[in-house]
Amino acid sequence: MFRIETLTTLDLQNNYIGDDRVQRLGDALRYNTTLTLLDLRYNQLGAVGAQYLGDVLQHNRTLTTLNLAVNRIGHVGTQYLADGLRYNNTLITLNLRYNQIRNVGAQHLNNALRCNRTLTTIHLQYNQLGNIGAQYLSNSLRDNTTLTTLHLEANQIGEVGAQHLANGLRHNTTLMTLNLRWNQIGDIGAHYLCDALQHNTTLTTLDLRHNDIGDIGAQHLGDVLQHNTIKIFFLDDGTEMTGELLPLSSPVDYINPSVLSTIQSYDFDRFEQLIGYRFHQRGDIFFDSNKSFNTVWKIYYPMFKPFIEKPKRLLDERIHVTVQMIDKGRFKGVDRNYRIAKTAAVKCALKNLGRLD
């Protein structure tokens, strides 16, 4: 490493390096002036190995990306890395996915982020942070002025953790992407986040998939989108919810986004062919409503509603949803999630509608 003056990327993932050998690597990296990316995923690194790497971060002046995903760093190792980040002024991306850092590790990172002025992306998926860890990171969002992307998937944050993060978002002016998939946030957590988004002006992407968000939470998200250009992903199939997919403001008129997104997925020509011609409207409503899919669906939904059967649960716990269209047949969707099953049924109906005479 001392003699190689052109090496910029070193990929050592899945090599079972362990703490002892990473020490020798660390000694070399202290004085290296060319390496920018170091990948040490799947290497059984523990707290001791993290200590050596923390020392590297204090002295190295070229490394911009450090990937330590799927190791055993824990909260003690995270403290060593955090100490290094306090003095580092080059690292941009840090990946600590699957490292069991828990809430204590989040506290150490919070202390580092208060001082660090270069880190823009942090991956903390699957680290059992909990709502307390979310609270520490929320404090970071208040003070840090460089972080733009934060991945917190599958950390058992819950609605309380969502509330803490929402408090941080109220004051944050740099974060652009926040991923909160698989965190059991629910409708209440979604409400907290939506309230914060009324004050936040920089977040552009929020991923809330697989969070048990129901109609009430979706309504809150829809209300936010009326005044915010943020992209929100909250359906389990990855559908993007934007201003084009706004639920109606009244709970009585609420349109389930899982159905509306199916309509949105077609361009206008397809929409006119499948819907407009069938009802002899030829898309006039679409244009008269300033190209609002909400208005169109508000008109057509009552026509479809009587033919959407109540869901049935099968023996294997999957939910069976059937959509019937007069003279066209019955279309089925099956999934363990009701929204996905209904979306599948509607998609099937729309696709076949264009093929049937």
TrEMBL record:
GO molecular function, one term: RNA binding
SMART domains: LRR_RI
Entry-linked Pfam families: Dicer_dsRBD, LRR_6
UniProt keyword Repeat present: yes
UniProt cross-references to InterPro entries, sorted A to Z: DICER_DSRM (IPR044441), Leu-rich_rpt (IPR001611), LRR-containing_regulator (IPR052201), LRR_dom_sf (IPR032675)
Record GO biological process: pre-miRNA processing; siRNA processing
Keyword Repeat appears in the UniProt entry: yes
Keywords from the UniProt entry: Repeat
Limits of the Dicer double-stranded RNA-binding domain: 309-353
Protein name stated in the entry: Dicer double-stranded RNA-binding domain-containing protein
